[in-house]
Write a structure and sequence with these properties.
Blueprint (H helix, E strand, L loop, with lengths): L6 H10 L1 H45 L14 E4 L3 E4 L8 E10 L2 H6 L4 H13 L3 H4 L2 H20 L17 E11 L1
Antiparallel strand pairs: 1-3, 2-3, 3-4
Helix pairs in contact: 4-6
Length: 188
């Protein structure tokens, strides 16, 4: 009564041999699937980046070349002037002008130093205002022209340069005064 122990191990050996082949095939399929997903994700990212780059180029093309930016950490400096009340040139009847304005200067140190020049500045502005006709000041263009003339006259006072003559009479005079802003402008 002999027992045959040898057939059982032989039966187990063939059963365990196909299992590793299935595991290797499954591992290869999983690796290929992961690689395919990575390739698809990379393609989607590349397409999105190309679209974003194209959109950025379009945005830059639509924007004007000279876009002024405002530096909020360095606000402009203004010097408020006392109100001016002058009689306008009498050619169009007796009319007067009341104007409140501020000078925009390049920095706060200049604003502090303007006090010493204020009598000369006010004198030049008074002469300029009283030489104007009401019809010259009734349009926005006339007021802008007046503002430019005030900037030029005050810069002449501050820099000591003589007024431009002839064709250069409307040429801007370089100086610390950058602009004039009218807070109130009344002609009566």
């Amino acid at each position: 009564m002999a027992k045959a122990p040898a057939p059982q191990p032989a039966a187990e050996a063939p059963a365990s041999a196909p299992a590793p082949k299935r595991g290797k095939k499954l591992l290869v399929i999983i690796i290929l699937a992961v690689v395919a997903v990575v390739v698809v994700i990379a393609a989607v990212v590349a397409v999105l980046l190309l679209r974003k780059g194209h959109a950025t180029e379009e945005e830059h093309a639509e924007k004007p070349a000279a876009v002024a930016t405002v530096d909020l950490s360095h606000p402009p400096t203004f010097v408020a002037l006392d109100p001016f009340v002058v009689n306008l040139a009498p050619a169009e009847g007796d009319r007067y002008l009341q104007v409140v304005m501020a000078l925009r200067v390049s920095d706060h140190k200049i604003a502090e130093n303007l006090k010493g020049f204020m009598p000369d500045i006010r004198h030049e502005i008074n002469l300029l205002l009283s030489s104007k006709l009401p019809s010259e000041l009734s349009t926005p263009e006339g007021r802008e022209d007046l503002a430019t003339q005030i900037v030029n006259r005050t810069n002449q006072v501050l820099t000591g340069t003589p007024p431009p003559k002839g064709e250069n009479a409307k040429q801007a005079v370089a100086g610390p005064i950058e602009a004039v802003r009218f807070n109130s402008f009344i002609i009566q």
